[in-house]
Amino acid sequence: MVAMDLVIKNGTVATGSGAAVIDVGIEDGQITQLGGTMRASQSIDAEGMFVLPGGVDPHVHLTPPRTGPGENSWADNFEIGTRAALAGGVTTVGNMSFPRKGESMSEGLQRDIEDARTQSLADFFHHPVLLDPDEKALDEIPDLAAQGHPSVKIFLSFKRFDRNVEGFLKAMRIAAEVGSVMLLHCEDAALMGCCGELVREAGLTSHRHYPETRPVVAERIATERAIGFCEISGAATYIVHLSSQEALDVCRGGRARGLPLYVETRPI
Questions:
Q1: Minimal CA–CA distance to 220: which of 237, 202, 242?
Q2: What's the pLDDT tens digit per position in 66-79?
Q3: Sheet holding 6-9, edge to edge
Q4: Which domains does the chain have, with CATH numbers?
Q5: Nearest in space to 166 (alpha carbons), one of 174, 29, 205
Q6: CA-CA distance, 1 to 62, in Å (whole number)?
């Protein structure tokens, strides 16, 4: 009998044939045996608990250790964010990688990778964020995919999207050609700007009125556009943090037409 690194005993495991109490053997970080006799240098008694694979959260915003004026700064850094993820059973996170002013997507990505290597307690991958679809940035999409980064994030919620919509659509066409997934933040910038102005003019500036600045119609309209881009470009499209029934119904229509369309939701 080969000795394993770890045996998780007496836990409930769900398999294709149902749930049962099954011991789990792990060697070199991989599950190598379910049930039967096994021995290991370490064991964990999981009686009364479910034994689940580590979760994957494909959408997090974690701040690198060095930020400057005008740069994105989120609530958690790589260490704190991944520590919280592990506490919740999430062992892999996908971080949004924003290039700084003057950086290419590749340069911003490499900087974030190095920062995560020094801080992250969980496994990680990065989604490069496309802010300006100029020719140099568009040329990066195939190279990034070849290097193992087959995803690109764009924001319909930024005013620059409408100023460069043809370029972003071209990015999606390139993504389709190389097999990359496009992550789309779907909110209409003009509608949000107008609603924000109306709220401020009315003096409704407390946090309780924040949802009024990001109405459902802004998400629905942007989601409709995103699905149109998906249909024309053929790119696999992943709608991030969907938050309304109206936008979900739009996505269901796209799925019914056979589009390569995927949706996530999460606490907002």
A1: 242
A2: 667 767 677 899 99
A3: 30-34, 24-27, 6-9, 43-45
A4: 3-45 (2.30.40.10), 55-263 (3.20.20.140)
A5: 174
A6: 44
